[in-house]
Each structure stands twice: as structure tokens, then as C-alpha cells.
Fold:
Amino acid sequence: MKARVIVTLNSGVLDPQGKAIEGALRSLGVEGVTSVRQGKVFDVELDTADRAGAEDVLKSACEKLLANTVIENYRVEIA
Structure:
């Protein structure tokens, strides 16, 4: 089974990397960008056919390692 975990910063948390990307886009002449927030994407393959079990495993992985739940949100998408 394939899954994707998307980790983003909570709103209100400063994102210096996003600001740097925003500035770089402007300096490259990319117009219309008003804000950039960066995040992480993890593509994960699991050896199971149990959708609910896979989601539980990935949520546990997020809580333990993939996301800093103090400042980040995560979303699990099972393909």
C-alpha cells in the first residue's frame, strides 16, 4: 500500500525558510507570489492491505518522528 504524509507548520509559527523562498522567487522575477510556507512530504510504502491499520501506523510515525507536533500539523493520505 502506498501513502503520503504531508507535514506543514501550524499557522502563526514563523517560517524563515518560506520567507527566503518567497524573496528568491521575487528576485527571479516570479510575479504574483504573496506568501510561501514550506513543508515536508513523505511517500511511504507499507506491506499491508489493511487501510485503517496503515493509517494508524503512519499516525504513530508522525507523532514519534516525522512531525514536531508542537509546531507542525500532519495529514495522512492513503492511495
In short: Residues 11 and 55 are 24 Å apart (CA to CA). Residues 51-66 form the longest helix (16 residues).
